[in-house]
């Protein structure tokens, strides 16, 4: 069944939506389905065709108002992403500052402490002290920063995670209850990607972010959960800031040398 | 014919109505609208222009999820309640039942009073 009035309404709506073509098409198909059902019902009730078409359209109301409602929802989605990115950036910066403060208690020992901390990040130095939670956390961070290779074709997310973590020897916990409560099916959602030399932490972000999932680190274990929960635990998330600390160390030593020359 | 509920009265409970219908099983937009109308004895007429943005918002909030199906000859979008949605619905239902009881007690003397 094709009604020109329906087509005209949906075309006008599509023009006002300001959404991606695929989103516009899906909305048009869904609303068109409703219009046709409603038209059939009105015709079956004895309403003349012209009047039935008008009534079916009238029930959708003003096209500009309807487009505004859909745009508002799309905007809320964008705003949520912007908020998440902002919070993640702020927490990341905070993490860097705290890490720098913790590793650099002040005075002339700064660069030396940094160098020492970096040396301690070496896996061999840590494996001997795995009973300590701090050592295990550092080891997990080290492994998350390692480069890896990923090659998946339509593999369920529930199977991808064990492969990634087992390959790198990272102990993890999958918060199935929280993930499924957010409507994410670990078996239905599949992963398809092929990447060489990708940092493990980045691989996890690439796999988890589109599904509104995330992870945080606790006592050396990686906990995979919903994005919201991961964000709420974000003070424990992993941020690979060694390269920045290296830069700080280099700059600091330059400043120290300059200061020595001045003296 | 029974009078329809005012828009202001039902505005805060539309989400709950949609989720309660989806708690019974999968629905598409039109069938959901009909089910709400029937369940309310024609006293709640959820306009299509209100229904679809609401469905999309609930989906965005992950309280419901959708899937496309073409087995009936044309593409149709079906909605289901998620686990998160079911949990939210249970909480809201308890709160609303308690609110309705409270309001009923307050209004009982007025409803029962004879006109002067």
Folded structure, characterized:
- The complex is a heterodimer of chains A (263) and B (116).
- Chain A has 263 residues and is an alpha+beta fold.
- Helices cover 65% and strands 13% of the residues of chain A.
- Chain A has a three-stranded mixed β-sheet. In chain A, strands 1-3 form a two-stranded antiparallel ribbon.
- In chain A, strand 4 and strand 5 form a beta hairpin.
- The radius of gyration of chain A is 27 Å and the shape is elongated.
- In chain A, 21% of the residues are buried.
- The C terminus of chain A is likely disordered.
- Chain B has five helices and three strands.
- A three-stranded antiparallel β-sheet of chain B has the order 1-3-2.
- In chain B, a hairpin with a 6-residue loop joins strand 2 and strand 3.
- The model of chain B has no long low-confidence stretch (mean pLDDT 91).
- The interface between A and B is medium-sized, with 27 and 26 residues.
CATH class of chain B: Mainly Alpha
Rounded radius of gyration of chain A (Å): 27 Å
What is the helix/strand order of chain B?
A: HHEHHEEH
Low-pLDDT sequence parts of chain A:
258-263
Short description:
The complex is a heterodimer of chains A (263) and B (116). With 263 residues, chain A is an alpha+beta fold. Chain A is 65% helix and 13% strand.
Task: For this entry, give a set of tags.
heterodimer; A: 263 residues; alpha+beta; Phage tail protein beta-alpha-beta fold; 3-stranded mixed beta sheet; two-stranded antiparallel ribbon; 12 helices; elongated; disordered C terminus; B: 116 residues; Arc Repressor Mutant, subunit A; 3-stranded antiparallel beta sheet; 3 strands; globular
């Amino acid at each position: 069944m094709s009604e020109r009035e329906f087509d005209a309404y949906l075309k006008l709506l599509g023009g006002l939506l300001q959404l991606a073509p695929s989103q516009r098409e899906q909305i048009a198909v869904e609303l068109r389905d409703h219009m046709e059902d409603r038209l059939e019902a009105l015709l079956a009730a004895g309403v003349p065709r012209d009047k039935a078409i008008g009534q079916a359209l009238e029930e959708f109301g003003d096209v500009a108002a309807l487009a505004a409602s859909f745009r508002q929802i799309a905007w809320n989605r964008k705003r949520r992403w912007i908020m998440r990115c902002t919070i993640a950036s702020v927490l990341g910066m905070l993490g860097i500052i705290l890490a720098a403060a913790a590793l650099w208690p002040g005075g002339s020992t700064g660069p030396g402490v940094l160098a020492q901390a970096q040396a301690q990040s070496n896996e061999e130095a840590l494996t001997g002290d795995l009973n300590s939670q701090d050592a295990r956390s550092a080891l997990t961070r080290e492994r998350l920063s390692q480069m890896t290779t990923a090659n998946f074709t339509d593999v369920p997310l529930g199977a991808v995670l064990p492969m990634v973590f087992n390959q790198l020897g990272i102990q993890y916990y999958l918060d199935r209850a929280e993930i499924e409560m957010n409507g994410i099916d670990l078996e239905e959602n599949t992963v398809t990607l092929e990447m060489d030399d990708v940092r493990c932490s980045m691989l996890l972000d690439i796999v988890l972010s589109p599904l509104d999932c995330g992870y945080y680190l606790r006592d050396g274990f990686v906990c995979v959960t919903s994005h919201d929960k991961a964000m709420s635990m974000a003070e424990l998330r992993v941020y690979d800031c060694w390269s920045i600390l290296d830069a700080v160390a280099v700059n600091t030593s330059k400043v120290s040398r300059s200061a020595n020359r001045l003296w | 014919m029974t009078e329809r509920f005012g828009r202001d009265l039902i505005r805060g409970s539309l989400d709950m109505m949609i989720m309660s219908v989806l708690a019974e099983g999968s629905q598409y937009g039109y069938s959901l609208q009909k089910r709400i109308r029937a369940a309310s004895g024609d006293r709640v007429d959820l306009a299509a222009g209100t229904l679809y943005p609401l469905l999309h918002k609930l989906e965005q909030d992950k309280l419901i999820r959708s899937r496309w199906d073409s087995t009936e000859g044309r593409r149709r979008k079906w909605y289901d309640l998620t686990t998160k949605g079911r949990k939210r619905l249970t909480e809201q239902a308890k709160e609303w039942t308690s609110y309705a009881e409270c309001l009923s007690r307050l209004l009982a003397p007025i409803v029962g009073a004879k006109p002067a």
